[in-house]
Amino acid sequence: xxxxxxxxxxxxxxxxxxxxxxxxxxxxxxxxxxxxxxxxxxxxxxxxxxxxxxxxxxxxxxxxxxxxxxxxxxxxxxxxxxxxxxxxxxxxxxxxxxxxxxxxxxxxxxxxxxxxxxxxxxxxxxxxxxxxxxxx
Length: 136
Prior knowledge:
Layout: H1 15-28, H2 34-60, H3 72-93, H4 97-113, H5 122-125
Helix pairs in contact: 1-3, 2-3
């Protein structure tokens, strides 16, 4: 998804209208219809996750033949592509994507952030201490 030119910088309050606009644009340019189009839209998410992996490998220089080919900012951009692609995929499944996501996020937050779960959060166990840099 990073190949597309950005026409403007939507602010967070425009998130769902931007997702709707992207869904409309993609729906108008799809080469396939029906179930095949739906499955291909879902597969796009796997492609984007693979690009995150590629960027992490490139940022850490794990391929000795290539060395360091990406930055952590590249990883951030690829993660954003995953989020956008997932939200567009959700919008493909339902026009109530915003409501579905909001309800699901509330359930995840309730079970993860409630006081009884306090000892199970990564920040409580120190799991994030070995991250790649500030902010992780």
